[in-house]
Amino acid sequence: MARLLVHALESLGHEVSIASEMRSFMRSAEMQDAFEANKDEAAREIERIAAEHSGSSAPDVWFTYHPYYKAPDLLGPALARHFGIPLINAEASYSSRRNIGMWQKSQDMLLDSLKTAAVNLCFTRRDRDGLQAAVPDARLELIAPFIDSAPYLQRTPMPEPGRLVTVAMMRPGDKLSSYMALAESLSLIRHLPWTLSIAGDGECRQEVEQAFAAFDPKRIEWLGALPQDDIAELISRGCLFVWPGHGEAYGLAYLEAQAAGLPIVAEAIAGVPEVVEHERTGLLTPRGDRLAYADAISRLLSDNMTRVRLASEARIFATRERSIGGAAESLRRILETYVR
Questions:
Q1: What's the CA gap between 211 and 181, in Å, rounded?
Q2: Where are the domain boundaries for CATH 3.40.50.2000 in the chain?
Q3: pLDDT in tens, 220-258
Q4: Where are the beta strands (DSSP E) in 119-263?
Q5: If DSSP codes are grouped into helix, strand and coil, which group holds residue 139?
Q6: 3-state helix, strand, coil in the chain (%, to 5)
Q7: For residue 189, what is the DSSP state?
Q8: Quick one: 124 exposed, middle or buried, by C-beta within 10 A (0-12, 13-18, 19+)?
Q9: In angstroms, rounded to a whole number, what is the distance separating the alpha carbons of residues 146 and 1?
Q10: 150-321: which CATH number, 3.40.190.10, 3.40.50.2000, 3.40.640.10, 3.30.365.10?
Q11: DSSP 160
């Protein structure tokens, strides 16, 4: 999404530069030493950037993407004050449940940033409502998640009957949980003629492979991590995109699959309903209901008329309603409103 935002801003004629590659990520709330080290590094970065961009090269806007409890923005607010320029936050998220240890300090900094920012861009109603509750005075604007659909429009969908596709990293937490749920659901429809192509890799690959070990090896295709062009080719040959979506902020893979003409089968969970419209571009099932998820896949495998209808609407939705061009126009309006 960060790269897409850069693309959208550049399409409006703005010059975007990456001011710093500093990483403030803190995996644990107990990492006080890391927090202090990050603050020291940030002080040096602030001094460097202030000197490098002084005078006529000073920026017009500071844009921060995705500040949250594990990764506070230690640069933007200070540099916005130094240069006397607006601060924009995009995809900030706040959770009172994370007010523990060093994460509470991160979130205190986030709240201050949200209050002072010229505008905070939200990609889901869920995030917007959470920020509104935490900082009632914050200036918030909603931009629907979007993609560059060009790589997917270059290919004509040629769905292979029964070919299910999944594209997802293999890492602990929500991603592994989704893989486990998918395997359990597919075990309920072994009698149907399907195959599953999995594009993805990561530290939990062994656990994921184990989850699918009971299936006939000929039914599961392990493709590893693929570049974008190969993913576009893969999903253009699928008939359904299957991914439960546990904990997804929204999931750009859903939009990419829909742009290629694949209906989605996912759970109505987290931010997934922001990018999949039930009974229009796919099917959303109740959270954690393995039988309902299996039934949804079964329905679309056996009812090609419905699958084709959803596929057509999915492509329209992703390539027209969630295009990078539309997002750029939203950004233009927001910048004209809040940045002068």
A1: 9
A2: 2-146+324-338, 150-321
A3: 999 999 998 999 999 999 999 999 999 998 899 999 999
A4: 119-122, 140-142, 163-167, 195-199, 220-224, 240-242
A5: coil
A6: 50, 15, 35
A7: G
A8: buried
A9: 8
A10: 3.40.50.2000
A11: P
> Rounded to whole angstroms, what are the CA distances from 24 to 3, 37, 40, 70, 246?
19, 9, 11, 8, 25
Could you tell me if 130 and 95 are in contact, meaning their C-beta atoms sit under 8 angstroms apart? yes
Tokens of 1: 């999404």
DSSP tag of 159: P
Query: Across-strand partners of 119?
Result: 88
CA dihedral sign, ordered 229, 232, 235, 241:
positive
User: Residue with structure tokens 């270059």?
Assistant: 154
d(CA 77, CA 85): 10
Report how far residue 279's alpha carbon sits from residue 264's, in angstroms, rounded to the nearest whole number: 10
pLDDT at residue 340 tops 80: no
Residues 49-66 have pLDDT tens digits of 999 998 888 999 999 999
- Between CA 242 and CA 160 the distance in angstroms is 15
Write out pLDDT tens, residues 268-313: 999 999 999 999 999 999 999 999 999 999 999 999 999 999 999 9
| 266, containing H or E segment | strand 264-267
Per-residue DSSP letter, 144? -
CATH number of 2-146+324-338: 3.40.50.2000
Residue 14: pLDDT over 90: yes
Q: What is the CA radius of gyration of the chain?
A: 22
The CA distance from 91 to 78, in Å, is 19
Residue corresponding to tokens 């790269």: 3
